[in-house]
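#struct-help
A.M.: can someone run this one for me? Single chain, 173 residues.
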Amino acid sequence: MGSADDALPEGVSRILRERAEQLGRAIAGKDAVLLTGATTGLVHLVAQSAQGAGAFHIGISPGSSEGEHVEKYHLPTDACDAIIYTGFGLKGRNVVLVRSCDIVLVIAGSMGALNEFTIAYDEGKIIGCLTKTGGVADEAARIIEAFQKPTRARIFYDDDPRRLVDRCLAEVT
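D.P.: on it. Structure tokens below:
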């Protein structure tokens, strides 16, 4: 989960791009299946990197068909091995996506990622925030402190993609 801004691939710093690619390779290195919102931006960079390193990537689309996915939502299909077309729109897609994951990883992120983060928190998921990437990933601890709510969620913060993936995977039972 994270920044899906269409302008990100051209506008992000080299370091943030590298962090996204490292996260993708870390996921692939653990033989994990990657689920994303089949979207753009940093999430797309993570997906491309993970898929390129051998991970199976399932995209969860807000659209009801490939046509709607591409034409209405302007989302890519190139980094996905399979896409599930929910027809639920962006917020409905987020619920399906988060509930389908054992671990929710957050890189940077704005309002959409905040929605995914709060769903994951409410659902008691294992959540990993890749810190020093900005946005939701860096603000999550402050958000949780300000809006405390008891859940079974386990949240990990780390600025190293491999270490973050390892810490989160160690929690999966």
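A.M.: thanks! Residues 89 and 143 are 25 Å apart (CA to CA).
D.P.: also worth noting: Residues 8-169 form a domain with the Rossmann fold fold (CATH 3.40.50.450).
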